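Possible regression after last week's pipeline update?

I re-ran a chain I had predicted before the update to compare outputs. Posting the input and the new output here so someone can diff against the archived version. Not blocking, just want to make sure nothing changed silently.
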Amino acid sequence: MRILVTGASGLLGLNLALEASQQHEVFGSVNNNVIQTTEFTVLQSDLTASGALEHIFECRPDWVINCAALANLEACETDPLLAEKLNSELPEKLAKYVARGGARLVHISTDAVFDGRLGGYREMDSPNPISLYARTKLNGEQAVLAANSEAIVARVNLFGWSLSGKRSLAEWFFNNLSSGNSMPGFTDVFFCPLLANDLAKILLMMLEKGLQGLYHVVSSECTSKYDFGVRLARQFDVDEALIKPTSLARAGLVASRSPNLSLNSSKLTQELGESPPDLNEGLERFHAQYMSGYPDFIRQMGI
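New output (post-update):
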């Protein structure tokens, strides 16, 4: 298959492009973060510019996986117009363009579309976004499904190694722990993060099986962010006491965060015939990647 990955320099996009390139011909669209690699074909493009979609679709993909987004919650609050362009308008344009050409589309959304008051959310539960980021992402997923009924919309949460080494919560914990720095860990914020590489493999499986519609694609296990940090510390054999338990209310963050974003992934499990990996499996692979030099391999792609 010929696969086009938008946002291919991001945390998910880069790991997904690398995973997919093992069996498929991959084209990765990037904007500001230029990368250099022989693993897949890099396409430089500002997807919000006129004619950009026509340009990147010259590769004639069979599958398109849209990872492009403005994912920094604070950045969305300070630049709402860019957030709307990347998180709402671009997905709709992509969905319409893909539908005309006969390719299959996966659009990446977020668990943050829920307000986090209850947790255990299923796909049929009503979203209630509480940040600008979440609102624009919800608008994007709704526009995609309205424009392309055969598309997959995947609500995700993930961690992994990134181009900058600073994109995921796991990297933040690792960087501070390995430097002996004290840091907070929220005991009252819950999520179900998947290793980016595991998420990538699941998305490819979903395309292979011809799935369509809305899915929660997260770990089969949910935990607090404090517990996530502690378990990462134990995996890397560093001092977990450096992580200080604290509450979200004391963080002083600009954008609102949902406290309980645990999602139910039973619909996905039923379709694939297996559950997504749990947190221990993901952290073990995250550690194995570190030991094999994978973070350095990724960072060397930066120009």
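Follow-up from reviewer: compared with the archived run. The longest strand covers residues 104-110. Marking as no regression found.
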